[in-house]
Amino acid sequence: MSAARPLTALRTLAVITALPLLLTACGYGAESTDSNKQTQVAADGKKLSVDEVNIGYFPNLTHATALVGIQEGLLQKELGGTTIKPSTFNAGPSEIEALNSGDLDIGWIGPSPAINGYTKAAGKNLRIISGSASGGVKLVVNPDKIKSLKDVKGKNIATPQLGNTQDVALLNWISEQGWKVDAQSGKGDVSVVRTDNKITPDAYKSGSIDGAWVPEPTASKLVAEGGKVLLDEGDLWPDKKFVITNIVVRQDFLKKHPDVVEAVLRGSVKTNAWINANPEKAKASANKALEELSGKALPAEVIDPAWKSITFLDDPLAATLDTEAQHAVKAGLLEKPDLKGIYDLAPLNKVLKADGKDEVDDAGLGVK
């Protein structure tokens, strides 16, 4: 991993790439930017143990807990006089860099970057402290070229990036069909074409790919271009649930400022509850946030089906993260990792218990 750069040095690139951010996947291939707006603090808000908390997330529907929580002031309400300094990313590695450098305190991020960040730092930097979203990943294909699952053999299928969450899922699915693909090159019975999500729709329209295993809203964007959903990844998982977004924190920040971490988690839990109780208002709020960040809202034909396919929840679905790691090992993209200690769910369970909700499990991967 390259040396981390201060977030201020990334602002210029972020302005240039603002529009493509809208269609980015669960994080791969670009930089970060500080949000231009500092969240407002209530005049009588009580300051916690730190003046400011740096929070990162992607301008992406699978990160809608952060989008909506900040847009509606639900996170800030819990933080009182401690202000949120939001930063947006469209690359998992960039967010991990910011976390490692101390430029970021808490972030919403996908499972593969979280696993990679944890293992590369030998378990000494981040902790997963909550879930945020499940689902929202689909295999969308050209219906003229692919009419059934068996027709995927011999075709060109895009994923966002080598080794990312969707890439691992596709490689595992291909293996389960009895087909062979070299994970590094993507060559084999299926040609796995690593394509940045912001250009995947154009690649589909040009015919250079026959389909794509991608997250929302890219999947619905492809459907709007005439593609067909051949497979919803949720159908491959028990109870149709698998982690797509987690909340992570720097271990030293958690140790020094547990009150701030707990406040963010309260805000996240309340935001998810509000999203689930008010899906249409929440969808509009998320789209407004995306418009403010990128300059363009998602059209109804994209956001409506995309929104319905994502489940917002507090449970990190820890067992599915462990399974995803095993899939990456099986594909040869990851050495067998020691994930013991990647979770610290005690602060979340404290919040859930106080709210009268069931506590969640770390699948044996919690801190000792």
Counting copies of identical and different chains, the oligomeric state is: single chain
Separation, N- and C-terminal Cα atoms? 28 Å
Low-pLDDT regions: 1-32, 35-44
Q: How are strands sequenced across the largest beta sheet?
A: 1-3-2-4-11-5-12
Percent of residues in beta strands:
15-25%
Apparent shape: globular
Question: Share of helix among residues?
Answer: 25-40%
Number of helices in the DSSP assignment: 14
Radius of gyration: 19 Å
Mean pLDDT: 89
Structural class: alpha/beta
Tally of extended strands? 12
Q: Helices and strands, in N-to-C order?
A: HEEHHEHEHEEEHEHEHEEHHHHEHH
Note the topology.
Layout: H1 11-16, E1 32-34, E2 52-57, H2 64-71, H3 74-79, E3 83-89, H4 92-101, E4 106-109, H5 111-120, E5 126-135, E6 137-141, E7 156-159, H6 165-176, E8 191-194, H7 200-206, E9 211-215, H8 218-224, E10 228-232, E11 243-250, H9 251-256, H10 258-277, H11 279-294, H12 300-308, E12 310-312, H13 318-330, H14 346-354
Parallel strand pairs: 2-3, 2-4, 7-8, 7-9
Antiparallel strand pairs: 1-3, 4-11, 5-11, 5-12, 6-9, 6-10
Helix pairs in contact: 2-10, 2-11, 6-13, 8-12, 10-11, 10-14
Structural features, described:
α6 (165-176) links the parallel β7 and β8. It contains 14 helices and twelve strands. Helix content is 38%, strand content 17%. The protein has a seven-stranded mixed sheet, sandwiched between helices. The chain is α/β, with parallel strands linked by helices and 368 residues long. α6 (165-176) packs across α13 (318-330) and α10 (258-277) crosses α11. Belongs to the bacterial solute-binding protein SsuA/TauA family. Its main location: membrane. This is ABC transporter substrate-binding protein.
